[in-house]
Amino acid sequence: MRKYGFLSVLSLMLFACQEEQAPVPAIDWSQEKSSNFSKNVAIDEDLDIKMYLEQRKSWQMIETGSGLRYFIYQKGTGEKAASGMIAEVKFDISLLDGTKCYKTENGETETFKIDRSEIETGVQEGIKYMRVGDKAKFIVPSHLGHGLSGDFEKIPPLTTLVIDLELVALSVK
User: Fold this and answer.
1) What would the pLDDT profile of 119-145 be if each residue is shown by its tens digit?
2) Which fold has domain 64-173?
């Protein structure tokens, strides 16, 4: 009986020492608010892109249905890129304000499988307009890039990317 009495007292002491937790406030978010937020971000981003391109009138950008803008400024004569191929590329990635994020070093290339890798959706779409030897500029809105989270390193959330891409080679594996 003493044992149960001791456990009862110990339990009361433990519960008595706990701080009272404040209730968690309800989050007032809905699908409609999410949709409106996304639309407003897209509108603002589109205005930023248009202002950026206003200063670069020589870039003959083509806009796709997804919002990707691309301009092939040097034409190659090689094979056309397609889904499932391995692309070997050189790239330079920056933000609209000119901040450099990533770049392949001199003589180096990167490879990825088209439509089957974690490369930005905008690059996956844009590379399929290219041939080996092409050099292109892509303007990749955040929804085709790193979206709401950024890349947790050099690319902030909700950021448009300017990508200069050279398609060096293609292979099938």
Assistant:
1) 999 999 999 999 999 999 999 999 999
2) Chitinase A; domain 3 (3.10.50)
Q: What is the pLDDT of residues 90-129, one digit of tens each?
A: 999 999 999 999 999 998 999 999 999 889 999 999 999 9
Residue 160 vs residues 19, 122, 148: alpha-carbon distances, Å: 46, 11, 11
CB-side exposure of 146: number of CA atoms within 13 Å?
A: 18
CB 129 within 8 A of CB 69: no
Which residues on adjacent β-strands are paired with residue 139?
Answer: 69, 162
Cα angle value 18/21/25 (rounded, 5°): 170
- What is the reported pTM? 0.81
Domain borders along the chain are 64-173
Could you say which DSSP state residue 145 is in? T
Paired tokens of 21: 């937790």
Q: 52 Cβ partners below 8 Å, 6+ apart?
A: 96, 139, 160, 162
Residue 167: enclosing H or E segment and its boundaries?
strand 161-171
What tokens were used for 154? 């050099």
First-to-last CA distance in the chain?
75
Burial (0-12, 13-18, 19+ Cβ within 10 Å), 29: exposed
89 C-beta neighbours (distance < 10 Å), count: 21
